[in-house]
Predict the structure.
Amino acid sequence: MTTSPGDWGAIIACAAFAYLCGSIPFGLLFARAAGHGDIREIGSGNIGATNVLRTGSKALALATLACDIVKGFIPVLIAWHFGPATATAAAIGAPLGHIFPVWLGFKGGKGVATAGGAVLAYAWPVAVAAVIAWLVMALVFRYSSLAAVTAAIVAALDAWIARPDGVEPLAVLFIAFIVIWRHRTNLSRLMRGEEDRIALRKTRA
């Protein structure tokens, strides 16, 4: 099946739109608005919900988590109206935007929540399996990085085995790979026993 120039135009447009949506640094914006300063100077320096939680505000972290999921979900949901190829492009573009945001010099977060939102719109059964894996690992071990990597592996395996209609397993595999790659330093700390557990209280100096 060939792809026409018009199809490529839609694919590129959806990928770009998803990337720009994914680039919105909600954690940074919310932390600043709440008077916590630059979230990149707190804890891990990440702009995601886990690091926002280190400000001591669960509400702020929850808002960041919700918005990071939505910015991955909405572009892919819209892209589905133009076909599976555009949805695939958007599913890849959104987490790349969070990880490499143009607004922050291409230095962003780990992409877990945004990737989760993108996969939820792209292949919701795969996302459900990944969320269950994340919750189990997070509740049992309280390591966000371990939970994220496990969820990424489960998502890739589920997509490859189940092969939902219209879903490209290699796209999910790529998303999982980049999420795992972004956690490489966390995994190194985890193996050395130096990784921080999920914090429920504000860290005091």
